[in-house]
User: Fold this.
Amino acid sequence: MAIGRSTKIILIITALAVLGAALALLLRPAGQPGEVLVTVDGTAYGRYPLDTDTDFTVDTPWGYNRVVIHDGQADVYEADCPDKICVNTAPAREIGDMIVCLPHKLVVEIVPEDAP
Amino acid sequence: MKRGARALVYISVLTAQAMVLSWVEGLIPMPLPVPGARLGLANIVTLVAAYTLPWPSVLLVVAARTVLGSFLFSGLSTLLYSLSAGLVSAVVMLLSRRLLKGGMRSVLAVSLIGAIVHNLTQLTVAALVLENIRVFWAYLPWLILLAVPAGLFVGGAGRLLLRYVDRLQLNLK
Assistant:
């Protein structure tokens, strides 16, 4: 089975999209000062500095997530959600990094300091 | 066999195959930086359905496989994501199959489009549930990067499979 002309066009568009996505990931700014923002169900739960080690548990209406900030990075250590995707996500340290727990509608993300 | 009975058997076989593929996929570990990223093996079934069945039956297969799959494997909490993404990507795949013409030669492109739309829909639903637009932008590049190899793999598998399904001369469309 040969490849049709319209398929070639789609393949080219896809290749460009992949290039754009790769560039977007590679050109992410690194090393800028940020802080940890925890959001539950779309509302801010709390902000925490990255340079102070803390260990706290976020109680959401759907369950809990234990968040640990240490060595300049934020990590979800344990949670009672069914999929444990948040626990398995790598720690967040650069601005834009995120840990998401969909079942608990919880987002732990690194945002620029003093950003709304 | 009457046409209606033949269609029913074919739809059931496709749904059963999707179940098996979902199960097999659960056995493959995916060590990726993106949580929940998967190959989407069950989309092979949607792709084959889109080329061999009328559109209402395609949507039926997708709805049946996502609902049954969430009961059996992933849990009900994920049904919102798999059902919406499955249906939206199936509709877009059906439309692009028509627009691209070229019959079987469009399988690869239709599969790619389906994979990207599937990921985009899931991401959009997740961003809406979390009420956080930053989630969308943070994961968008990853989802495009991962959808392309998955879409090509599913498209390649679908092309091979469709050759054999073609020989059955089901004439269900």
Summary: The domain at 3-167 of chain B is CATH 1.10.1760.20 (Arp2/3 complex 21 kDa subunit ARPC3). The helical segments of chain B are 3-27, 43-52, 55-74, 79-100, 107-130, 133-167.
